[in-house]
Amino acid sequence: MLNVGLVGAGWWAHHAHLPAIRSHPEARLVAATDPDPERLASATALDPGVRGFPSVAEMLAAADLDVVVVASPAAFHADAARAALLAGAGVLVEKPFTLHAAEARELVELAASRRLALSVSLPYQYTRAARAVRSLLAQGELGSLVAVHGVFESYTAPLYAGDVDEYLRRVDRPHAVAPLPGTYADVALSGGGHGQSQTSHIVSALFDATDAHPERIAAESAFLAPRMDIANTLSLRLKGGAVVGIFSSGETLPRQPAQQTITYLGTRGVARHDLALATLDWALAGGDAERVEPGEGESAYPNGEPVRALIDAVLAARAGRGDAARELTEGAGRAARAVEVIERIYRDEPVDV
Fold first, then answer.
1. CB 52 within 8 A of CB 41
2. Which domain holds residue 79?
């Protein structure tokens, strides 16, 4: 039985991470930390014997943890993840991974050097369609990648203005604990607006599918306030020559279908990954074509899968099978490339990297 610690007892921890921990037969929540006593009490109320702590340092010093889930505001991700890795735990970090690429790369290197599992909570990457597009590109079925274009729309604008009540009312999303307004609207906590909250999804999906490295990055954004963006356009050149164009906005109307797609165009074929529907449609120049549908009972956004995958990887490593832990850490390395791109949103000039 693995001992799990939770950093941050807010909205998303209650909505996604705690149910996933509680549903895993080989894991138990034993410790949690949050500076808000009420949120901390809410997170630990259903788990007998769970100890609450006011800080990450105190939790790690007092509890023997195998897994740590970091679900605090984004500005605190890097420090909490670093401390947990140094304490010997496998770590899951809520997205955005970190606010700075240098921090993300440091964490990946630290996890790899200690042979620990490090993962970023990116649920879109846990669907059958996501696995299929990774395989298609890795095997070269589309030929050489020439271009990629992506769109990621969502209804998140009220969050960037701090109007959490309006957001929850319009989306009709049940919640045990509502997000605090500053989690999204305070740049000191969030590191930015839509780029950090939502564009990070599609950029991470791009690098997860292609395993590519960015060579040139340019960005333009619409801002509500300094560093608080509501829409982004990104232009990338990948090593190898492929070009990428991405548009992302938080101004979609609530309860309306949102386009969330990435299209990959190669010299021998094309593939369109619909993240919102968890489907993949691909066709080759020779005439072969296929549609990948969600698996039975599969959610398009399986928000509990990152926690379950990390717990399973740590269990496998304890049994002498370290492949899953290594693969998760490699995935965190790809997520670090997404941080590199998102970080450029908050700079004025295109940068060669």
1. yes
2. 2-122+303-323
**Is 93 in the same domain as 217?**
no
Q: Report helix angle 323-345 to 200-210, nearest 10.
A: 130
Tens digits of per-residue pLDDT, 322-343? 899 999 999 999 999 999 999 9
- How many alpha carbons lie under 13 Å from residue 12 in its C-beta half-sphere? 22
pLDDT at site 177:
84
User: For residue 252, which amino acid is it?
Assistant: T
Alpha-carbon span 340 to 196, nearest angstrom: 11
Q: What is d(CA 285, CA 61) in angstroms, rounded to the nearest whole number?
A: 59
Evaluate whether residue 332 is within a structural domain.
no
198-253: pLDDT as tens digits = 999 999 999 999 999 999 999 999 999 999 999 999 999 999 999 999 999 999 98
What would the two tokens of residue 133 be? 């597009």
Report helix, strand or coil for 341. helix
Task: Fill in the amino acid letter for 265.
Answer: L
Q: Which helix (H) or strand (E) holds 292?
A: strand 289-292
Task: Identify the pLDDT of residue 312.
Answer: 98
Residue 98 pLDDT > 60:
yes
Asked whether the beta carbons of 62 and 51 are under 8 A apart, the reply is yes
